[in-house]
Amino acid sequence: MKASQLREKNSEQLQYELNETIKSLFNLRLQAQSERLNAPSELLKKRRLIARIKTILREREIESQIVSLKGEGEYVVVQEF
């Protein structure tokens, strides 16, 4: 799933998707250990999907913090790397 598709979902849907993907990755790891995994590339795809979802959730968390701080009149310093 692409990041643009994930960004269209709300945070609850993303959290649900994250939990389901983590469960799926666990099952794939069990299959890999018992040597019954048909597509080893699925492990990498699931790990990357988990990273994408966590990144989007974190971006939303930071954005909500910035908005709340601006409303309180505090200075907001955003570092760009």
Overview of the structural elements:
The chain is 73% helix and 0% strand. It is mostly helical.
Secondary structure elements and their pairing?
Elements: H1 3-7, H2 11-33, H3 41-71
Order of helices and strands: HHH
Mean pLDDT comes to: 87
Describe the global form: elongated
The secondary structure category is: mainly alpha
The share of residues in helices is: over 70%
* Termini separation: 26 Å
Radius of gyration: 17 Å
Strand content: under 5%
Give the helix tally: 3
Task: Let me know the largest β-sheet.
Answer: none
Low-pLDDT stretches are none
Q: Give the strand tally.
A: 0
What is the compact description of this entry?
Helix content is 73%, strand content 0%. It has 81 residues and is mainly alpha-helical.
Features:
mainly alpha, 81 residues
